[in-house]
Amino acid sequence: MRRALFALTLVALAVPGCKAKKLQAELDATNATLAQTESDLAGEQNKNQKLTAENQAFEARVAELETELASLNDQIEDLAKKQGLTAKELKDLRAEKAKREKELQVYKDLFAELKALVDAGTIEVVFRKGRMTVKLSNAILFDSGKARLREEGKAAVAQIVPALAKVGDREFLVAGHTDNVPIRTARYKNNWELSTARAVSMVTEMIADGYPGTRIGAAGFGEFDPIASNETDQGKEQNRRIEIILMPNLGEIPGMQQMLKSNKAR
After folding, report:
1. How does pLDDT run across 158-187, given as a tens digit for each residue?
2. Is residue 45 part of a domain?
């Protein structure tokens, strides 16, 4: 009888212990889920802050260009009054202003077409070296050391092409970039070859998606045009990228034809 009571007592003590372990396990799982959620939220906040900063930088550059145009208009009027410009000189200055206004409108229209992709984090749009540039990370485009587009990369290209095609009769240069880690494989002897092959893959895909081959080109820059330090993993990741550059429409430079004719005659 005593043995039976002792056994029942052990069972009674064991049941709460099992429940406690189960509750503790559930609590640990809940805490782990909460920690992961907080981490994901922090990551999204950082991503949103970065996108906001990039949008603000682009908008700030557009505002600068608008200010420059307004200033140019004032300068034209001032020169016309004070310097006694000829009708031709005044016409040339106003034509230059109209050209800049047209270029600025191209920037605005293209950014508006791409904004959904910018907000989604698929691409970045920046002004670099005075040119509007669409930047894509190699992380979504290519596997390490490869130049064949991943499915995610093909999907991104398919989204970008219709927006670029709306720009009109303008040309784009697709530029491939790498970090400074040397590569030497059976297929690619160096980063020049890898970056160029990636640019060609992008152009080929863009043409397959409907972008005119007559308005696009490909170039590889290897590791020689970085946008961040190659001293850190984060910097290297930023440097591994594809850029789609809107080529400037310079038009005819006054006096250029005459200069070329003069040089040819010598």
Report:
1. 999 999 999 888 999 999 999 999 998 999
2. no
